[in-house]
Amino acid sequence: MWSRKRFDISWRDLMVGAARVFFSPEPDGTARRVERFWPDPEHTLVCLSVRSGFDLLLETLNLPRGSEVLVSAITIPHMVKILEHHGLTPVPVDLDPATMAPTADAWRRAVTPATRAILVAHLFGGRIDVTPILELAQRHKLYVFEDCAQAFTGFEYAGHPEADVSMFSFGAIKSTTALEGAVLRVRDGELLARMRTAQAGYPRQGRLAFGRRLLKYGLLKFLSFRPVAGFFVFVCRRVGCDYDAWVNGAVRGFPGADLIAKIRQQPPAPLLALMERRFRRFNAERWQRHAAKGRELTVRLNGAVLCPGTSSTPHNYWVFPVLVDEPPRLIEQLVRSGYDATQGVSLCVVPPPADRSEQKACFAEEFLKKVVFLPFYPELPTRRSQRMAAVVLDTLNPQPLPEKPAVGSAETA
């Protein structure tokens, strides 16, 4: 079984991380070294997670309660909760299937006198052109927050230089993961200084909490190996366990209640040490090869099935979504063929405010109903991705079986 997602971290990285739980350098100095990997370190801040950094940003900005924030219509539920915690109103802006981002006209139509900011997400490994958004924001004096959590391709891109804040995630299922952690690029130096001061007042997450995280993802990494994954899926089905729900729940960040208390922590010393190691060893060539395989898979599929977002460039194919009319049927066929596909449950469609029904995100809702995420990562061999494409095409366009010749016909004579 080719699991839905391989964790982009080696066993050696995990062992070094475990050692750092007990022996790690001073955290503040390590955080500064992590920030120096980025092209603009004096405008860079390391946080526990993108959720932590986004909450810290909104707490520091203190926008008027009731202000509207335009949001790419598909995001994770916690981003909506954080906006609402600060008394802000998220307003969804529907997506264009080609780029999985709102068009410039869609952003423009959504702006009202109550709008104070735009939160634009680069989804599924693609990177969109934010220049039209920045031009709109300049005309209306809006902040632009760039969510790059799914689009890290290396340190050459630290966010658009004109965006107010750009956020990168290195959580458990992200590229170049450190199992947690985020980097924010903040254009306004004075705003960054205030954010840094506020974060310094947070408690630091405990070393043992990060140690437990290492153990958890070590187990999940073991379960993602092909023979183990196949056996685990078989056992779950035999005992009536919902394997899909179990995996999605296991990798969910900050589960349970008290979200704000959980995210308002400084990153622990072993996490910072692991981030430094991952950044120092970043392999751009590996991801370039993976992107080439993603483009090849798109060519194989795109004539028969919609591959949303593939017009975004550059694109690292962090995940590979396709849209089909009957997701359960395709998932079942892929599982039978040894591919652990899923619809995923970690995303949500942002609901429109009660008085702004025209902002209902119709395509985003259709996307979540019809999407199937194919297993796709650098360790998946090209011939296996080609076989997976064949399974998808055969499922969506089955070839009729040849008719048996009638008994006594010329063909049987």
Give the neighbour order of strands across the main sheet.
1-8-7-6-5-2-4
Shape: globular
Order of helices and strands: HHEHEEHEHEHEEEHHHHHHHEHEHEH
Secondary structure: number of strands: 11
Give the helix proportion (percent range).
Answer: 40-55%
Tell me the major beta sheet: 7 strands, mixed
Structural class label: alpha/beta
Rg, Cα atoms, Å: 23 Å
Separation of the first and last Cα atoms? 46 Å
Mean residue pLDDT:
91
Number of helices: 16
Low-confidence stretches: 409-413
> What is the beta-strand fraction?
5-15%
Main attributes?
single chain, 413 residues, alpha/beta, seven-stranded mixed β-sheet, two-stranded antiparallel ribbon, 16 helices, 43% helix, 12% strand, disordered C terminus
Would you kindly provide a written description of the structure presented here, covering whatever features stand out?
This protein is an alpha/beta fold and 413 residues long. It is built from 16 helices and eleven strands. It has helices spanning 11-22, 27-35, 50-61, 77-85, 104-110, 131-140, 189-200, 207-223, 226-239, 243-250, 259-263, 269-280, 284-301, 327-336, 362-370, 382-396, and strands spanning 44-47, 68-72, 74-75, 89-93, 115-121, 143-147, 165-169, 182-186, 320-323, 348-349, 371-374. The chain has a seven-stranded mixed β-sheet. Helix 1 runs antiparallel to helix 8 (207-223) and helix 3 crosses helix 7 (189-200). It is globular, with a radius of gyration of 23 Å. The model is unreliable at 409-413 (pLDDT under 50).
